[in-house]
Amino acid sequence: MSTKQRFICRKFSLLLYCMLLFQVSGAQNDFGKVDNWLKNNLEELGGRAVLVIYKDGKVVYTHSENGLNKRQKMVAKFVAKRQGKDQSEMTEDLEPSSRLRIASCSKWLSAALVMTFIDEEKLNPDDSIGKYLPVMTANGKGNIKIWHCLSHLTGIKAGTLKESLQEMKEIKSMEEAIEKIAGQHMEGEPGKTFHYGNVGLQIAGAVIEKISGKSFETLFAERIAQPCDMKNTDFGKGSVALPAGGAFSTANDYLNFLVMILNDGKFNGKQVLSKSSVIKMQENYAKGAKIISSPAEAGSWGYGFGEWVMEEPNVRSQGVTSPGLFGSFPWVDNERKYAGFLFCFNLKSKGRNERYKELKQLVDEAFK
After folding, report:
1. Is residue 342 within 8 Å of residue 297, measured between CB atoms?
2. DSSP reduced 3-state for 194
3. β-strand pairing of 290-293 with 302-303
4. How far apart are CA 221 and CA 49, in angstroms?
5. Which among 215, 269, 362, 366 has the fewest CB atoms less than 10 Å away?
6. What is the DSSP letter of 141?
7. Helix residue ranges per DSSP H, 230-271
8. Taking the domains of the chain in order of start, what are their residue ranges?
9. End-to-end CA distance of the chain
10. What is the CB neighbour count within 10 angstroms for residue 25?
11. pTM for this one?
């Protein structure tokens, strides 16, 4: 073979290699169907949505879709006026750095914060809350355990999620919040009665405040937000933190938290949570419990500590999530080793569970 022929063969081989490499990488990260899903579902998502996906050590997908219709703009302006907010906050385009209230996505953050105390052996999941909060014992609730609080299994009767949040807004201190909870009736046996709401995490928040002598807001900043580089995430900085639904965050910030969970509690080389705590959070503690109240968008999912268990082939779930009242949907897929966060704002919940599953399936397929 002549020198010229060898040169031509090498060029052809290099070209063929590049074409094959492009085909493989394209097949592994084909998000075309995901793009279309966001466009087709934008109205149901509230007219504004951001989706971010992380895999193999990097963000592999970021997409913002914005298109509020006239009705949605009117509703957004009405909500802004009612809540005393700037109208632009409710109508401007959503980007990965935009900051909004994330409702029940807060639960995952709060449960993780409580688990940092368990990692340090300052708290035990089997501890009774009466050990830290005498008012609960005085009202016959001291035997409720910490793990009951993290999994909505306290057995304490509570109003709807909306009613509970409204009541909490009027409370001026954590002590006042706990006194109110202590006086509520029981509706079932602790550990055997599931009622999705705000009560359990509020109690758990009060316990870690008592142990540390610091506010919930300060503890979250020190133990979760700072080590996970969540610079724009907090619990509203009001008179009393609402661990079950009071957080504000951005798509970028919350994805950092999910990356920490995906990496068995480690973020940027720092162990924020122990691997054992991450696994413990992902077990289904609601299995066999009497279901008093569960949101329709959760479908048949089980519940761990601050998060829903989407699939449960073994002890550790393949997929976990903590969607919020306003439509945001964070998830971690332990089997396929990736994390995603759909960030949006919409009060309309009909069909959410089906949409969440459909979106996740499309993202799963993008990695095949």
Report:
1. no
2. strand
3. unpaired
4. 26
5. 269
6. -
7. 251-262
8. 100-348
9. 41
10. 10
11. 0.89
Look at the chain and count its residues.
368
Paired tokens of 315: 């002890």
Tell me which fold the domain 100-348 belongs to.
Beta-lactamase (3.40.710)
Number of other residues whose CB lies within 10 A of the CB of residue 18? 10
Question: 3-class secondary structure for 336-355?
Answer: CCEEEEEEECCCCCCCHHHH
Q: Are 256 and 234 in contact (CB under 8 A)?
A: no
Query: Beta strand pairing status for 308-311 and 302-303?
Result: antiparallel
Contacts of 168 (CB under 8 A, 6+ apart): 177, 198, 202, 240, 242, 246
Secondary structure, 3-state, 88-120? HHHHCCCCCCCCEECHHHHHHHHHHHHHHHHHC
CA-based angle 148:150:152, to the nearest 5?
A: 65
| pLDDT tens-digit map of 288-334 | 999 999 987 788 899 999 999 987 555 556 899 999 999 999 999 99
What is the Rg, in whole angstroms, of the alpha carbon atoms belonging to the chain?
23
Antiparallel, parallel or unpaired: β 193-195 and 100-101: unpaired
Rounded to the nearest angstrom, the gap between the alpha carbon of residue 34 and the centroid of all alpha carbons in its chain is 21
Helix, strand, coil tally for the chain in percent (to 5): 45, 15, 40
How far, in Å, CA of 256 to CA of 277, rounded? 18
230-252 pLDDT, tens digit each: 999 999 888 899 999 999 999 99
